[in-house]
Amino acid sequence: MSSQGGAPDAAPAPWYSAFPAPKDVELGALGREEVIRMIKSADKGTQDFVLVDGGTIRGSINLPAQSLYPSMPTLYTVFKAAGVPGWFRDYISDRGDTEMQSVILLGGIKGWVAVGGEFVETMDGYDANAWAKKE
């Protein structure tokens, strides 16, 4: 489709272009094995983290990416004893907080699912057929 001048219309900017780029792009990461160990420890009452993944892994919460940046002041207060990545890591750093971390899951949720076994057992509402369609 073209504009009235005959030039092709530009693709819309991605949603995140409305926000500043994260200053620290070298995010820390945790492997699946470490995260599942943390989940098992949390099941025993020793949870000192918040897992944000879309709400599929047991005990995690869903924070749509588009809501993260404008919600950081509130999230920082709520997650003071936990962690969330990128912009949130900048927010933590800007406050001089050296105790809180923001890391990513190595391989993401798709890597978690690919391993199967105890990993998918920790997912609420896991449906192998639905995940097969996402590959």
TrEMBL record:
It comes from the Eukaryota. InterPro entries: Rhodanese-like_dom_sf. This is Related to arsenate reductase (Arc2). It comes from Cephalotrichum gorgonifer.
